[in-house]
Amino acid sequence: MRAGLPAGCRSLLLLLLAAPLSACAHSPSFFQAAGPVAAEQRDLFWIVTALLMLVVLPVFIGLPYVLWRFRQGNRQSDYRPTWDFSWKLEWLVWGVPVVVVAILGVVLWTTTHRLDPYKRLPGKSEVRVQAVALDWKWLFIYPDQHIATVNRLVIPVGRPVHIDLTSDTVMQSLMIPQLGGQIYAMAGMRTQLNLKADRPGSYFGENTQYNGKGFHKQNFETLAVPSAAFDAWAAQTAQGDRPLDRATYARLSQESVIARPISFSAVPAGMFDRIMRKYMYPEHKPVSGPAGDEAMQ
Amino acid sequence: MVHGAWFWLLGRIDLDSFAFVRAWREPSLDRLIAAGAAAMVVLGAIAAFAIITRMRKWRYLWENWFTSLDHKKIGILYIALSGVMLTRAVIEAVLMRMQQAVAVNQPGIVKPEHFGELFSTHGSIMIFFMAMPFLIGLINYVMPLQIGARDVAFPLLNSVSLWMTVGGAVLMMASLVIGKFSTGGWSGYPPYTEMAFNSGVGPDYWIWAVTLSSLGTMMTGINFAVTIYKSRAPGMHLFRMPLFCWTSLCVSILMIFAMPPLTVATALLALDRYLDFHFFTNDLGGNMMNYANLFWLFGHPEVYILILPAFGVYSEVISTFSSKRLYGYRSLVYATMAIAVLSFTVWLHHFFTMGQNADINAFFGVATMTIGIPTGVKVYDWILTMYRGRVRFTVPMLFSIAFIVTFVIGGMSGIMLAVPPLDYVVHNTLFLVAHFHNMLIPGLLYGMIAGYQFWFPKAFGFRLDERWGRIAFGCWVSGFYLAFMPLYVLGAMGMPRRMAGVFQSEYLPWLLVAAVGGFLVLAGLVALFVQLWVSIRRREEASVPVGDPWDARSLEWGIAAPPPEYNFAHIPDIETRDPFYAAKEHGTAYDPPRHYDDIEMPKNSKVGPLLGIAGAACAFGLVWYIWWLAAAAFVAIWGVVIARSFVRDIYKTIPAAEVAREHQRWLSQVAAARGIPRELETTPANQGLAEGAAA
């Protein structure tokens, strides 16, 4: 008799393990990391999985064994109905989880600090982006370049990107799985996210926090381009004749789904702060002015 | 908008509020589905009403069930409510799975807004109106019997809790027919649920349904905790209680401390919506993060309120069907207590992504993992309980085994989510959805089903059909794996939760598999109903009047099935853990008591149903701005409470002679029954007497 599983079983097992991984290879997954943050997250996933096997495998192996060996029909097995305690097992039962959790705790503590989304990434000439969550689109302001885009985030490869986030509507959450993330954007508050792309490409970005009927259409493209190309793009966009003025922003901040990305030139300085401050300092604002009014003042 | 006298009379109800009218005006598939759901509610209500009237059962139901303060009947009503709500929420789940499988690069079967209602009602119902009533019902039925009590400490409060929950459930059902439900999910996060973004009735339906349920649940917690502290039989020390009572105690404590933050959160949100306060609004100093904290201060202990009772069930089931003492009883008690305490220290892990600093996230991450330790201990202890036992693969045992395997997988993904840097990439994705279903379906629902199969013969005097039970088991387990394992993959592929449509074709195969799983789960539910039907039809041959069909261990098995109203003809003296099993070993399990006494039991009361009706009416008035109705119902609530305080004659006495007669009739059934070996326990030979027990 041949040892091992029948061929059908083996191919099924292979399918069960391989299919998810190959699926992730063709999708916006952090398993397809394109930057240092997502890469570390992917590695961490495997480290944690491996450590957990220490706790989980005894269950997966032990349970079927115990069930088979001590089934009702097996009269050969030891039957000790009053056996209900053993100090040796007690040490094992509490000890193994304690040790595994202790190790995991150390891993957790160090990686949480190392991968703190607020921590600036090393590298020269950081790009600053200010993301404003709107219904159902993202506005990305480049304060140093005085330009802005909607639903397209262009970043240079190899340079750290610092994103400030706020919302001019309900709470949302920004994630670009292949680069890392995510962090919530909330009105009247500023949250931060630091990312970097290692290789050029187009990466899927999304809002993950439900915000109404256009939610499932609220995604954006992240375009990572070589550094020189980024500077050229920024300069070219700044030349454009589509300023982000008061009326434009008012229109933009209405509920809507944007079919194609938009670029804006001539973004007034301090726009992000004004959008945020609108909700922070009530005495400066009438209670229910249309969103974005003040941003243009 | 409506004006004048109409508004005064009917608030903001207008013709378009009705699902039927909306479907009539625009008969799209989306609206027809909504109207179909409304029709199911209306026709179901009419059919139930007609059948009860035709069978002339109104008086019977009112006197024997609705106004009864018997903890056993209240428990059964809770579970019946849970079954109705489970059916609705599973159908909604199947609709959502179909939507996501169909709506890949094209419009689906329902519109995005309708999809938002579906996931909101599905979650709210499953938590507040399926899971909570199920576990409260089970504890209600079993716990007083296990500690040797005649009823809970506050029988009237018990009835009030039940009917408040029913009131909330009625509101959930009404939202299908009149108006629309919230699209803000089961957690109802502002500012999305504030007036500025959702001014319709949806969030108000959610607020008041949840408020009614949370008030009822908090009172239940007080009731159960006091019952366990004060009503135990003589000699039933805490460390002699069955583990199910321990988990009930921990759950009650959690309910007392965890429900108030929820009530406060929904009350503050109501103030925002009704009286223009600014607790959680974007502007004027509101802060939605406070809501997140309050909600999860409830929400995380809630997870353990849901899971611990199932842990109790598994401990009873595994020990009984392994014919062996529970391994590591003290260890299990300490682990349960540790889980209960730690559950208050981890709420922040529900929003690692809100921008706290790394120290805070790391602290809560480590705290979360720490819960994994006592949980792991429990899993090992259950396996060690089977070790050196004689394991019988009955339906409750099958669910318990499926639980252990499945729950361990869910625990793994839970530890992953507890690591903040991993949470950042899978939070709010289907990975998270897969995780909590992976905890709650085995960790709650399988446990409740196992408990239902286990204690059903006790409650009704006959066993449930074994074959249909196994079919249900097969569907539930395969359905679960097919429905939720793909969601882990989809989450890792970056697909967010709550998507009404999908634009990534590579998600499609996984969504199709998940949809098949959804249908299998529905088949599992249908199989459970078929099992109930078949079992009722064949109740004669499956009857177990002696009351101990499984050769079980705790007190409740030592009395008739179904038990008499007063539970015990004579309150037993407890000298050991597993007292009934010990009595069987000593051959004293069915000894008649030396004498019988008069027994005092609470009289029926209309207060519970009246408060439930008034509570639901008040909430309905508030939802629709029908102020006269809300005010009148509010006055009625307090009127009933005050009137009740004048009622003095609240006890009835069951004479000793009647107790003796009933008890001796049962003892003669015991004497006539044949004790059977375990191999025959699923055959008609089983009359509820274990081999050698009546020696």
Please, could you describe this protein's structure?
The complex is a heterodimer of chains A (297) and B (695). Chain A has 297 residues and is of the alpha+beta class. Helix content of chain A is 36%, strand content 21%. In chain A, strands 8-5-1-2-3-11 form a 6-stranded mixed sheet. In chain A, strand 1 and strand 2 (137-142) form a beta hairpin. Mean pLDDT of chain A is 89; it is low at 286-297. Chain B has a single domain (57-605, 650-680), classed as Cytochrome C Oxidase, Chain A (Up-down Bundle). Chain B is built from 21 helices and 2 strands. Chain B has a two-stranded antiparallel ribbon. In chain B, helix 6 (112-146) crosses helix 10 and helix 10 (288-321) packs across helix 15. Chains A and B meet through helix 1, helix 2, helix 3, strand 7 and strand 9 of A and helix 6, helix 12, helix 13, helix 14 and helix 16 of B. Chain B: The chain crosses the membrane at residues 32-53, 74-91, 125-143, 155-178, 205-229, 241-271, 291-314, 326-348, 360-383, 395-419, 439-456, 468-490, 510-534. Chain B: GO terms for molecular function: cytochrome bo3 ubiquinol oxidase activity; cytochrome-c oxidase activity; heme binding; metal ion binding.
Could you outline the blueprint of secondary structure elements for this entry?
The complex is a heterodimer of chains A (297) and B (695).
Chain A lengths: L6 H19 L10 H34 L17 H28 L12 E8 L2 E6 L4 E4 L1 E5 L4 E7 L4 E5 L3 E6 L5 E5 L5 E7 L11 E7 L1 H13 L6 H7 L9 E3 L6 H7 L20
Parallel strand pairs in A: 1-5, 4-10
Antiparallel strand pairs in A: 1-2, 2-3, 3-11, 5-8, 6-7, 6-9, 9-10
Chain B lengths: L3 H7 L8 H7 L3 H26 L3 H9 L4 H32 L9 H35 L8 H23 L24 H29 L12 H33 L12 H34 L7 H14 L15 H29 L8 H24 L1 H7 L3 H31 L5 H27 L15 H30 L41 H8 L12 E4 L4 H18 L2 H19 L5 E4 L1 H17 L23
Antiparallel strand pairs in B: 1-2
Helix pairs in contact in B: 2-3, 3-7, 5-6, 5-7, 5-17, 6-7, 6-8, 6-10, 6-15, 7-8, 7-19, 8-9, 8-19, 9-10, 9-11, 10-12, 10-15, 11-12, 12-13, 13-15, 13-16, 15-16, 16-17, 19-20
Keywords (chain A): Cell membrane, Electron transport, Lipoprotein, Membrane, Oxidoreductase, Palmitate, Respiratory chain, Signal, Transmembrane, Transmembrane helix, Transport
Protein name (chain A): Ubiquinol oxidase subunit 2
Organism (chain A): Stakelama pacifica
